[in-house]
Amino acid sequence: MFAGIVSRLPTILTMLWELFKEGGAYYALAPITLVLFLAMITFIVFMDNAERRIPVQYAKRVVGRKMYGGQNTHMPIKVNMSGVLPIIFAASILAIPTTIEMFLDQNKISEGWKTFFNCFSSEHWPYVIMYSVLILFFAYFYASVQYNPIEMANNLRRNNGAVPGIRPGKPTSDYIQRILSRITLIGAIMLVVVSIVPMLWQLGTTAADKAVQVSMSGTSLIIVVGVALETVKQLESQMMMRHYKGFLD
Known about the structure:
Number of domains: 2
Distance between the termini: 43 Å
Order of helices and strands: HHHEEEEHHHHEHH
Structural class: mainly alpha
Shape: extended
Radius of gyration: 24 Å
Strand content: 5-15%
Helix content: 55-70%
Strand order of the largest sheet: 4-1-5
Largest sheet: 3 strands, antiparallel
Number of helices: 9
Number of strands: 5
Mean pLDDT: 78
CATH topology of the largest domain: Preprotein translocase SecY subunit
């Protein structure tokens, strides 16, 4: 998927250059499209690396002649914990009516049904609204499946850990639940912004009779940036392992 998406980059740049050479309004629209493209990449990098760190303090305990614990650490929670999955789920569900329309005889479809099916086209505003709502829903759904605040609080208690200022048990689970709800909302809004910006740009330029389409969707950008960042992290970890000499050298 990464290779297929990256292979379309020369085509996108060539399209923008051809539009720029046409002159007129494209002197401004083509560079703005390129700047928008770079801004989305920067925003996705920020979104992918953003995290909320919950401070955790472990109590000291003596085992034999050794003392364990007593250190302060944190529990990282990524802002975009669901990745690209909410966008994929939302797009898949909204593609169902369009798929059904393909099996119908276009000459026998009434105007009412045509209007209904048009609402599920990315070129219309109702699709953008439904797309955004579904992304928010699936982001919360994935977070509820992936994270269990009660289990996280119990694991902290079993390991003699606690959040400073929060009592162990139910207060800790409620505290983690509040943080998860807020972080999930922020991450879902970021996903909505990334996914609908190309659609809004396309709708806006089409309404102005200057169709400059962003051929690479927000989903493709998230996949490309995510794979690139993960590759960089893997390379850094491998380099660190190769140059690590240990404590004895």
